[in-house]
Write a structure and sequence with these properties.
heterodimer; A: 326 residues; mainly alpha; B: alpha/beta; 9 helices
Chain lengths: 326, 203
């Protein structure tokens, strides 16, 4: 079995991966359909759960299709697709963070200069600049533009909001296509596995953490921010994520121990990033980026789906680059 | 042909920037003769409400444009005539001509219209007092359905004096239709209409 897989060309290996993923999605879809058919509508919580599961499934379909189209059409198209995802995520973020008139120019800068430049840097593989362009240059340029707008009211707060939006939505998401372009010796054509590894371990860790918190309810660590976050369930999620990462090491250029370490790094960044995004949402007085959407903004809750990835991708990317000296 | 392409381009642009989501809360989108009246905070209001309407209604609903501004250049005139099918209204009163005349013509020929009863763009949070045009039209055309609408967030997309729009999600909420009650005087009706628009803000 494993020698058969090894003898396949890289592109058929990746193709096979997509067949497996889409197969799993179809199975999950059928399960959801059966569940909703058998649901009598008496138990409201159950009906709600099924609805949530279906919407999660829908976004998974969309995300997987984005990955697949990106992979099939090459890295340039993939980068452009992620630029689009970043654009919509930033739009969602800014909509829910009140801005003033004086922020207008800074917002124009963020959307129409910073975002395209960052993804262009990724596309042209200038990775040194990719990692510092936003945290160094943009973070100094944005307050300058804001200051020139001549509006000192809540200046620090407004700038912090915008910088966070750029950091999470543009910087974080741009590191996903950057992973696709990273040059591992002897690993060309298989970088899609690296992205798959990252997404899969982070999502597994989060899912296990969520299930563990449900199974063994404990008083939450930070109840004002999250009703479900607790260190023990977090550790369980982390452990499972690490083990899954180790098992997947065959897909990656890492040795098993390295794969476990990389998975742990990604899981820590992802799950804690999710917690930070929860705090941001509480600050705005909403439970998720999408629920407000149904009532006011029309946002689809894209940020809810990608927030863990936004934090995990840059950290993962940097650790890989640094450790392997790429 | 060119107008069709332009309108598709504008629709795409507006959807990418704002989402242009329509929320039909008080009434369904329906092909009956209507006057939509909404708060007015930005030039983009008109375009947003136009984009939020379903395409079948878009073709029978005509926005109102200020004649002096929108006929200044051939491009502006073409945009408002061919793409938006706008009704021109004279802001400067000339002689004894009724400024509502073109609106009355349009309503008589069976079109729906989009009206901003504040007259000018406000920059306050709350809309200014409504002008009496809405009352006069309601009196003249009792069969036309009056639909209040609240346009949310547009002033953030393009504040007065800026040229580059910023992507921010916007929505248009349509409320329950309003009717002029028997013996209701001008001021009371206009206040009630304004309340109806404001009430949609929180919903």
């Amino acid at each position: 079995m494993s020698s058969f897989l090894r003898n396949l060309s890289p592109s058929s290996q990746v193709g096979l991966l997509f067949v497996v993923v889409f197969g799993l999605l179809i199975v999950a879809g059928i399960a959801a359909l059966i569940m909703s058919l058998r649901d009598s509508g008496e138990d409201e919580i159950r009906t709600q759960d099924i609805k949530e599961f279906s919407s999660l499934l829908n976004t998974s379909w969309i995300m997987c299709t984005v990955f697949w189209v990106g992979w099939a059409l090459g890295e340039t198209v993939a980068t452009l697709l992620f630029a689009l995802v970043a654009f919509f995520a930033l739009r969602e973020f800014i909509t829910l963070s009140p801005t003033r008139r004086g922020d207008h120019r800074s917002l124009v800068l963020a959307f129409f200069v910073v975002l395209p430049v960052q993804f262009w840097l990724v596309m042209t593989e200038r990775f040194d600049l990719v990692t510092v362009f936003i945290p160094v240059y943009v973070f100094l340029a944005i307050p300058v533009v804001s200051a020139l707008a001549n509006d000192p009211q809540r200046f620090l707060e407004r700038n912090a909001k915008l910088q966070w939006g750029i950091m999470v939505c543009v910087y974080g998401i741009s590191h996903v296509p950057a992973l696709l372009l990273l040059d591992f010796p002897g690993y060309s054509g298989k970088n899609a596995f690296l992205v798959f590894f990252l997404v899969f371990v982070v999502q597994t860790g989060m899912l296990v953490q969520h299930l563990a918190a449900r199974k063994w309810p404990r008083p939450p660590t930070a109840p004002q921010v999250s009703q479900s976050f607790h260190w023990s369930s977090w550790l369980i999620g982390l452990a499972v994520g690490g083990v899954v990462g180790g098992l997947m090491s065959g897909l990656t250029p890492f040795k098993p121990a390295q794969a476990v370490a990389m998975a742990l790094i990604a899981c820590v960044a992802g799950s804690l990033g999710h917690l930070v995004m929860k705090a941001l949402k509480r600050d705005r007085g909403i439970t998720n980026w999408g629920s407000e959407g149904r009532s006011v903004t029309g946002a689809s809750g894209l940020l809810d789906r990608v927030d863990a990835l936004c934090f995990a991708a840059p950290v993962f990317f940097h650790s890989v680059r640094w450790y392997f000296g790429l | 042909m060119l107008a069709k392409i332009m309108s598709l381009f504008l629709l795409g642009l507006i959807r990418a920037l704002t989402g242009a989501q329509a929320r039909w809360q008080g009434c369904p989108p329906k092909a009956e003769q209507r006057i939509y009246f909404a708060n007015h905070q930005s030039h983009a209001d008109l375009v947003l409400i136009w984009a939020a309407l379903p395409s079948e209604l878009r073709s029978i609903t005509r926005p109102i444009a200020a004649k002096d501004y929108w006929t200044k250049t051939p491009f502006k005139q073409w945009l408002t005539t061919a793409v938006f099918n706008a009704i021109y209204v004279d802001r400067a009163k000339t002689g004894d001509q009724d400024p509502l005349e073109p609106l009355i013509d349009a309503l008589e020929s069976g079109d729906s219209i989009i009206l901003f009863p504040e007259g000018t763009r406000g920059n306050q949070e709350e809309p200014q007092a409504f002008k009496s045009g809405l009352y006069n039209l309601a009196q003249k055309f009792p069969q036309v359905v009056l639909v209040p609408a609240w346009i949310n967030n547009v002033q953030r997309v393009m504040p007065k004096g800026e040229v580059v729009p910023v992507p921010i999600l916007c929505s248009v909420t349509f409320g329950a239709p309003l009717a002029l009650q028997e013996g209701e005087d001008r001021a009371a009706f206009l206040a009630r209409a304004r309340e109806a628009v404001l009430a949609l803000r929180e919903s």
